[in-house]
Amino acid sequence: MKKVRVFISIFVCKIIRGLAKLLGRGSSLPGKYALKICPDILSQLKLPEISIAVTGSNGKTSTVEMIAHVLRSSGLKVAYNKEGSNQIEGVVTFLIGDATMGGKVKSDVILLEADERYSRRIFEFFHPKYFVINNLYRDQMTRNGHPEFIKSVISEAVYDDMTLILNADDPLAASFGKDREGTIWFGADKLPTDKTVHEGIYNDGKYCPVCKAPMEYEYYHYNHIGKFKCTKCGFARHDTDHTLTAAEDNGDRASITIDGKYEIPVFFTGIYHCYNILAAFTAAVAAGVEPGKAAEALGGYILKSGRISDFSLGKLDGRLLLSKHENSVSYDRSIDVVVSDKRKKSVMIIVDAISRKYYTSDSSWLWDINFEKLCGADIEKIVLAGQYCDDLAVRFELAGIDSSKVEIFEQVTDAAEYCKHNLDSFLYVITCFSDKEKILSIVTRRELA
Ligand SMILES: [Zn+2]
Fold first, then answer.
1. How far is the CA of 181 from the centre of ligand 1 (A)?
2. Alpha-carbon distance 29 to 16, whole Å?
3. CATH code linked to domain 308-446
4. 156 alpha carbon – ligand 1 mean position (Å)
């Protein structure tokens, strides 16, 4: 009877998936029906020996895409869930899509981008061999609450038979590996851009995630990411198996070095981007790829992708720095890029649709972003655009930015017109996936040089 149920579940899922494809629609609906017919369908599928799940507040999609690229470059057949299908229904849809009618998944490796909150539901039925936890930040607070809550939710998805691959520099992510044998650690060495004093509006690394006593940092790479040590219980940054040993950008050429010998060319050395590369490298090596080959594949891939776009707008040159709304750490990183550019520049910030996946008008996260840092930068104009331009304007007023430097436009097209006719300096645009096309559809994109 069970076998029949499994068969029907797979059959129905494949039929609906086929129909949806014919209609040009991808959705997690097929998985929803499969789960209705057989609620434990995930545990009935025969999975390949290697499966890797990636979670974290930032960089899941980039990291999964990089791992997929490296594994494919070494000849493995990889199946992974595309962005937006990282909840259980989506996972069922993509796994059955890759399975035979008998429930055998055909690929050599299963890669999963796992939603922080839904991992516990997915892993009830099958445990990935490797579970990468890259970082835990304040992110989408209307649905995720705060990072400690997410940490407690993820802890329900961690099982003894998994090998954890953890960011040693993030105390929240690293706490999953406390007293746990066999964990694989990645992290960054001390870098020239590190700070000895915490920077930012809030500090999620102030107290130990294990015992709540105050923590001390030898240095911070950014926000609460760095070399930490609890003053009471001994919880401290773990030694790493794979390490970012250098990140260099001399203008013409940027590269990072892993483990002192694997150099990977990159477009820019934003530390945040470096962690995704390092996480992908570590996961690929754990899955059996030779480190030199992994670095080579990553270099080739990163040269072609990159989540920054250069453009022209009239006579202006500009660069879009993709960030995430509702995620202050990602904005802080973009602001670091602007501040580290010593030229005179202008900055456009667009907040028009806060999320593309659900409706929220919560703009409290704007108050967590360190916009104050722009005060010291050589700025021609700050252009605030989109439906939430007035929220931004209040935030900038309280950040102490000279109001004569600030221009406000509800329409992104008006903001772009203003820049085109009134500015002379390099233009940085900071916005989210949900709003990026509103500017990219107006400007002329250029290949990254
Ligand atoms: Zn402690």
1. 19
2. 8
3. 3.90.190.20
4. 21
